[in-house]
Design brief:
Elements: E1 2-5, E2 18-22, H1 25-37, H2 65-81, H3 95-101, H4 116-120, H5 127-139, H6 149-152, H7 154-162, E3 167-171, E4 178-180, E5 185-189, H8 190-194, H9 196-207
Parallel strand pairs: 2-3, 3-5
Antiparallel strand pairs: 1-2, 4-5
C-alpha cells in the first residue's frame, strides 16, 4: 500500500514529494517464507511484531535446508537491490515485461519488483495462510494516522529529503528499526514510523555528518 505525499500543509515545500510504502508484497512473501520454514535469514532483519501463522507450510525435502537458506538470502538481496533501479514513476509494465521478469535469472526491471513466487512458486508454502497474514498486516494501514508521521516530523523530513530521500518503507518489525538502503529509500519499523521521537531520530541520522 502506497500513499503519496504531500498532504495539504503550507509548510510543505512545493517540490517535495514523499512516498510511503507499507509492507511491500515482495518483502512480505520473503519474510513469510523465512518464518514458515524456520530459515536463519539475516541476523540484522528483526523478527515480526506479529509472527505469521504458517498454516500447512513445510520446508520441501529437496534440495535441502542449506540450499533453501542460500536461495532465500539471494532472493532477499535481489529484492533489496531492486530499489536501486526502481522506477519512481511506477509505469505499468507490459505483459511481455511481466512474462520475461518472471523467469529465473533475469536482470532487475525498474517497473517490476522481483518475487520469490516468480522463481520458486508456492512450493512448501500455504498460500492462503500467507494472504491472511499479509491482509491482516495491511488492514491496519487502511485508515492512515492523522496527522501523518511525515507531517508531524516535517522539519526533519525536509532535511532528509534534501539529502535525496523520497520513499519511506514501513515494515511490521518488532521494536525500533531504521535503515537507509539507498539514497532514496529509508526502511523503518511501523513502531519507529509511528513514534514521533523515533522517526525524527531516524530521519536526522540520515543527515548527520
Amino acid at each position: 500500500m502506497r500513499r503519496q505525499l504531500p498532504l495539504p500543509n503550507n509548510r510543505w515545500p512545493s517540490d517535495m514529494a514523499i512516498t510511503v510504502d507499507y509492507f511491500p508484497p515482495s518483502l512480505a512473501l520473503l519474510l513469510f517464507v523465512r518464518n514458515a520454514w524456520g530459515l536463519a535469514g539475516y541476523r540484522e532483519i528483526p523478527p515480526m511484531a506479529s509472527a505469521p501463522d504458517a498454516g500447512g507450510s513445510k520446508l520441501p525435502d529437496t534440495p535441502g535446508r542449506d540450499e533453501w537458506e542460500d536461495r532465500w538470502r539471494r532472493a532477499w538481496d535481489r529484492a533489496i537491490a531492486w530499489y536501486t533501479v526502481e522506477d519512481r514513476k511506477r509505469r505499468h509494465p507490459t505483459s511481455e515485461v511481466l512474462r520475461v521478469q518472471s523467469q529465473p535469472g533475469q536482470e532487475l526491471h525498474p517497473a517490476v519488483a522481483p518475487s520469490w513466487s516468480d522463481e520458486y512458486g508456492f512450493e512448501g508454502l500455504d498460500k492462503q495462510a500467507f494472504m491472511r497474514w499479509f491482509d491482516s498486516v495491511r488492514q491496519r494501514h487502511l485508515q492512515p494516522i492523522e496527522p501523518s508521521p511525515e507531517r508531524t516530523s516535517l522539519s526533519a523530513l525536509i532535511e532528509a529529503w534534501k539529502t535525496g530521500l523520497d520513499t519511506v518503507i514501513s515494515m511490521p518489525y518488532d521494536g525500533h528499526y531504521a535503515q537507509r538502503i539507498t539514497r532514496r529509500h529509508l526502511v523503518v519499523s511501523d513502531t519507529t514510523h509511528e513514534d514521533p521521537v523515533q522517526f525524527v531520530t531516524a530521519l536526522r541520522e540520515l543527515t548527520a555528518p
